Amino acid sequence: MPPESKILLLIIGSANKRKGGDQHYDASASIVAYLPEVQKASLISGRARILGLIKRGAVDRLGNRITDFPQNRQLVAGPDLGGKAIGALYLPAARRFYGSFYVQLLPDGHDLLTNSRHHVLMLTPLYGLVMPLELIQDHDCHIDAHVAFRRTWTDNDRLTDVLIAYIQRFGITTVLDLTGLQNFRYLIRWSKARQICKKVLHCFGEQTWGSGLLTPLGNLTRELLLKATQNKIAGIEAGMYYDTPTDRIYFHSSETAPTGLRHELARQVTEFNGADEIVRMGRCIRAMLHWLGGEPNDESVPKVIRQLTESGHIPIDIKKHMLSITYERNNVEHKPKHSVEPDNLLRLREGYDRIRNWARTAEISLSDECEQI
């Protein structure tokens, strides 16, 4: 059974994985056992869609067929991935993953994760979200290998709603985002999660970022899992620091970067805030399109904007601003090395102000989030 703690640590899987396993599969160890039917079906269908892309010969950014990667040749459409096939080899996620983050949890990393006093969920490209004891297959699936991988989880807030359902199921009051990597962090619509959870804190390194941040985050996770009580973690506030042997970790939650941060840390936090704001703008534009009668998914938003402009529902000048924000939002969510330039963010804010003012004049219903951006 999951722990009684109201703390959730969100971490990532890893590209490096232990091989092998056995054929026994037990769904009771899966996150789907704790989800409402809607989110359960959504998560399983997302996994099945990505498996289908792999098996049908999707190619990565270098033109390689992902199905030809050695680990993927043995992938089976078992119950973990929305199928009924047998013969797959399974290991618990806590034992399967073996990257630089997980090395910091050794020698007892598996026991540490599976017996944690706090909730732990792992973010992974193929499975979406998994629990430490959840049985998964060996695979090679990078989140940025194919644009449809990311869109599978971001479209209609699929992964965000799974996370929220878990938060609500266990009354989680504090989420620590220990994912570290931008391309994983943006799979979640954080503004929506913040509406449900009392406290969401994102972890940044004072001197390290990207994959280099996984080592201090692994060390931090070990300390929190082993030593910190629920009250201690609940007492962590935005702006606090935690020292690890290799870097100082900063906890962040506000929409502006505080003054006094070291240059690199300030850059990271400012970029995250800007990206988060652009994603929220894009989501609100999509909501407007839906209100006007369009049925866009993330990929078809530009097409729907043009269609509604041609039909007279959207003015031409508003179309231009909508397309600019949509383009930048796609860059944020689907290009891992994309950075948000301050001048561009200012221009997009001005464009969004015009969109919002037009929406009010057109009596389009706007959520509180869309009004407050």
Structural description of this entry:
With 373 residues, this protein is of the alpha/beta class. It has two domains: 7-252, no CATH class; 263-372, no CATH class. Helices cover 46% and strands 10% of the residues. The chain has 16 helices and nine strands. The protein has helices at 37-55, 70-73, 93-96, 100-103, 109-114, 147-154, 158-170, 182-185, 190-196, 214-227, 230-234, 263-291, 301-310, 316-334, 342-361, 368-372, and strands spanning 7-12, 91-92, 119-124, 128-130, 135-136, 174-177, 199-205, 241-243, 248-252. The strands form two sheets. Strands 4-3-1-6-7-9-8 form a seven-stranded mixed beta sheet, sandwiched between helices. Strands 2-5 form a two-stranded antiparallel ribbon. The longest helix is centred in the C-terminal third of the chain and has 29 residues, at 263-291. It is globular, with a radius of gyration of 21 Å. The model has no long low-confidence stretch (mean pLDDT 91).
Distance between the termini: 40 Å
What is the helix tally?
A: 16
Largest sheet: 7 strands, mixed
Over all CA atoms, what is the radius of gyration?
Answer: 21 Å
Q: How do the SSEs run, as a string of H and E?
A: EHHEHHHEEEHHEHHEHHEEHHHHH
Number of domains: 2
Structural class by SSE content: alpha/beta
Average per-residue pLDDT, rounded, comes to 91
Low-pLDDT sequence parts: none
Strand content: 5-15%
- The spatial strand order of the largest sheet comes to 4-3-1-6-7-9-8
Structural shape: globular
Helix content: 40-55%
